[in-house]
Please model this.
Amino acid sequence: MNKSDLVRILCEKEKLTEKMATECQSALKIDPPQDKSFQ
Model:
């Protein structure tokens, strides 16, 4: 389980508001671009 997974799970678990969800997504984007080629 990596940082992206933890953040995504936390977002879903807390059922954040749209504003908070946007901040959540921004947090995910902190991870290096290599993440996308990883999938």
About this structure: The chain has one domain: 3-31. The chain has a mean pLDDT of 65. Residues 3-31 form one domain. Residues 16 and 24 are 9 Å apart (CA to CA).
